[in-house]
Amino acid sequence: MTRLKILHTNDIHSQFDNYKKIVSLIRKHRDENTIVLDGGDFADFKSIELQGTRGIAALELLEAGGYDAITIGNNEMFNGVDTLEHMASNSSIPFISNNLVKKDLTAIKGVCKSTILEKNGLRLLITGSSPDMGVFNEGLGLYMSDYTVAIKEEIQRNKGKYDVCILLSHVGTFADEPLANEIEEIDIIISAHDHKLFTEAKLINNTIMNSAGNYGEYLGIVEIEVTRGKVDLIHSQTISTKEIQEDPQVISVLKVNKTKAVNVLSRPLYTLENPLWHDVVEENPISNLIADGLKDMLKADIGLINSGICNAGIFHEMSRKKLIEICPSPLNPTLFEIQGKHIQEALQSSLDAQVCLAEGRGPGFRGRFVGRLHVSGLKIEHDGKHIKTIYLKEIPMEDEKWYLVASSDYLQRGSGYPSLAINQNETYWAEEIKDIIQIYGEKPEFIKSAYQNRWMEVAKIRG
Hints:
The chain is an alpha/beta fold. The protein contains 17 helices and 26 strands. The strands form six sheets. The protein has a seven-stranded mixed beta sheet with strand order 6-4-3-2-1-14-15. A six-stranded mixed beta sheet has the order 7-8-10-11-13-12, covered by helices on one side. A five-stranded mixed beta sheet has the order 20-17-24-19-25. Helix 3 (about 55-65) packs antiparallel against helix 9 (about 250-265), helix 10 (about 285-300) packs across helix 15 (about 435-440) and helix 10 (about 285-300) crosses helix 16.
């Protein structure tokens, strides 16, 4: 009989204040039978420390926690395949994904399909699966194969080489329960991606399954006994980090990497000729600049963005640090076709301050408010409450006509403005909206255009 203790986390999303406490808990509960695993989305590039070190800070933090392996979640992918490859190839901790390759089907340097750890004479096969990002795969430079097939292939490839099979799944609990029923060789699933918190592990078709919520608020524990090939669950729980003291080593790693990152990211890219101020409700130049940049980059009829994408303006020098601070959402430029009536419905809603000040919830959105819609290529006549006419190149917009719109994936999904979800033929770019600000903030003609209002009150025009 051999005992094994698994300490595990998932979906920390660079919430490093909680991670400081996680590591304190790991140190408290670790013994000679322990391995430490992460189910992915540890590295969220909203973090200054990660942006300024190309993810190397995440590796140092994982090493401080004594992790043995991590699987690749969608947030490890969001900074592009080059950054992921840089992280994985420089990591002493295995970066695992059995179904993730480059879009040309070549391997990602440093990423392994599985690894075998030995602990107290037990051979542990650890494999992991990443979530299919669908239409975003191309822009990120990635390709995802079927995770069920990939898991079976890894189990078959390692047949006879292991005693316990552990799956780090960043696909979600909705997929993990069927996997437990279908693939009997899986002994343990550490589940992630959909942020589920289990108070204790579930047993599904003799497969042990646990998930520790998100944001580093809990540490998961699974303890097993292995007797003549049979794996038995003897204890499991998820422990809150709320009242736990912070680990001094993690504090030090974060401090050092923040200093490095700030020095790198604070370097001025260029000086702004005019300030790009911001407002959630009122028309403002930084939101107009984004709309203009989207329309130009994506070669669309119309540029469209919500002012909530930013939480402040830029007044003197452009730097990557400032861009991350004011535009933290990792949202992508998106091109789609939509009928005029659905654009008009969204723009009409945008006249309502309560709509603009609603909470900007939605995948990938890291701001607070939805914000007012800003446009490029359009002129909108209104009386303060109702839109009178919308012009595109001096021609009134037609309800049934289809228009090519450049926007963000947030708006394309209908977040904040539901009518915008009624679209077709969407295409996503690998850049982020903050990159639009950086690129077009250096172009004098676009800065000048950003100060030209597109929303015009009828009384002011004609009175």
